[in-house]
User: Fold these one by one.
Assistant:
Number 1:
Amino acid sequence: MAYTPGQFHQDQSIANVLDDVARAHRILELEGHGDMSMGHLSYRDPFGRGLWLKRGNLALSEVVGDDFILIDFDGNVLEGTGLRHLEWPLHAEIMRARPDVNVVGHSHAHHSTVFAATDQELGPYNNHGVWFAEHGVPRFTDTSHIITTVELGVEVAKQLGDAEAILLRNHGIAFVGDDVIEATLAGIFLEKAARFQLDLLSAGVAYELPDPAESIEKRRRIYPPKAQQNYWMYFNRKLERVEALQGIGIAQL
Ligand SMILES: [Zn+2]
């Protein structure tokens, strides 16, 4: 796979977004999504050529702006060097099915993956769960295997529907957004909501599902674009403080 300088280096707008997508990887590691060199985000190429996918053999905490390869929707590598993650069809098929989605993430975040292994429905039991109040979080149970075929990718995308995330039973999660901020918050909030609900379940006390209509209204009220930007900046400041002390590539706090 010979590297030829192409659009990536010619178009600063893509490079700028990929810097943010790289930061999103490192933020997600800080927020409990790290699992050795597994997990990856992708960004839809604005010129319609395909998607920019994190390359393989790197931890989430190690990703910088140059660590992306451009693949088309059939998985052909168009630009960049390094390994193509086996689960590229997960990204390609979600983007094919969801024109509104520009960023897709996949990880094995611990609490979300524990939650995915249960038969419980994720609910808006705290503010983080409210992110998913409108569409819920479906659970993909066709296989516990990784999503390495187009057929499985198509099925995950179909079952994701209009939702912001999907649980992959005995495997992990996928989460999406129309930009890097939305996708990152979806990943972080799913992990926090799953942890909260597991705590709730293990407390062994009675609890009730909050009113669904109220939860949808609450979602609109507490997560307007301005608030999303505010939380994104918070997570970036947190990342900068950690990296100022430890550099890029930390495994855990
Ligand atoms: Zn996986």
Number 2:
Amino acid sequence: MEIWEDLESDYREQTGQSKNAYDELYQHIPAGVASTFRAWSPYPFIVDKASGVHLHDLDGNSYLDFDMNNGAGMVGHTHPEVTSAVSNQLEEGTLYTHPHELLGEAAKELKKRWDAVDLVRFTNSGTESTMHAIRVARAYTGKDKLLKIEGSYHGVHDYCLISKSTPKGQLGHPKQPSKVIESDGVPDEIAETVEIAPFNDLEAIEAILQDNVNEIGGIIVEPIVMNVGVTQPYRKFLTGLREICDEYGIVYIFDEVKTGVKVAPGGAAEYYDVEPDLVTMAKSIGGNFPVGAFGGREEIMRIIEDNTAHYGTYNGNPLVLRAVTTVLRDVLTSDAYDHVNDLGERLATGYEDIMEDTGIVGHVSNVNSQGTIHFTDNEISDYRDFLEHIDTEFHENYWFAMLNQGVLPHPHDASQQWTISVQHEQEDIDEHLEAFKNIAPRLADEQQSV
Ligand SMILES: Cc1ncc(COP(=O)(O)O)c(C=O)c1O
């Protein structure tokens, strides 16, 4: 593809130092990266430093950043209030493996945002949060099976590496998706404890529950599926699931690792006005510090006091909790949400206008600070729609064309979405759109030629 050859060659020309550094990293680290998702072709640029709304690489390029650390950076990089709070905490100790008052302060901030959350436990990542929430759900109900949605990502522990991104040809029946283990090293037996259901299909979920009567203890859903853009639930899907969970005695888990505090102060639970039993959180609650949390109804969370394990040396350490309390109290204020939501709308509308003007077929899916562009007319309502209608190679052209102009539109991959941070300003949105405008005619030609 000619456009791709040009884009790759421009990228290589701009990132020679990154290439050298990447080759060196590769000698010491599998795939040269710390999380396999970050290894993309031909090679990732290597970060020198971050500040505000920019990432700077070793070649001196700066990128206007809408990736924002896979959505962990709604506060933007190096936010002065967060940096100052955490710097002060450095002087007072970074880890106490004994209780301290910040635990309560941070928990109270989360409780204010989620009606469903009476009690909170802290972890160090989203993966740990979903792993523990699932364990708690199973322990509370005494039922070992988990129901998870096809195409949803909930972290990298064994129970969630089933049918996260099933390849075409292995999908199975749309109402009863296949169980596909996504990593070597995950035992087959794990898949026997997980049932897979389609998103946005209550009927199919109810049928799966009927087939597994009294076996399923927890349902985990990402209320907006962010492993396939910004895929929203149909009206009544989330409330319907609430009713189903009540009827069948199942713990309803919202995975708000990506949606939490970003689509609304109280995440998707607030945005859609649904009360789950447990909520998992991470990413933007910590302002770029490594933290996670899970919380929920008192009766369920108290079983941790009996015989349901939740431990961790670094859980609730004061360094990250200082960041969490500052982010939730002082940075993600209601003014900040107004600011970010306005910018989100400006970006989405700008994309739609440019596509219309240049004849690009596509649409934007967005909710407040989160959004993405899909180069198709088809609605994306679940993972299968994404597989069928999204041309990931074409999207790659768009992504590199933006990157080469110094705009990182979202994390690498067509499945991802942008995050508008509190530090972005109107001129950053306009710069982003200007870059798209520059490349749009060429993308339109390319799309028409396919
Ligand atoms: C919805 C969701 N849950 C869980 C996780 C895992 O979080 P972490 O990468 O902090 O382990 C992610 C990560 O992207 C996620 O998007």
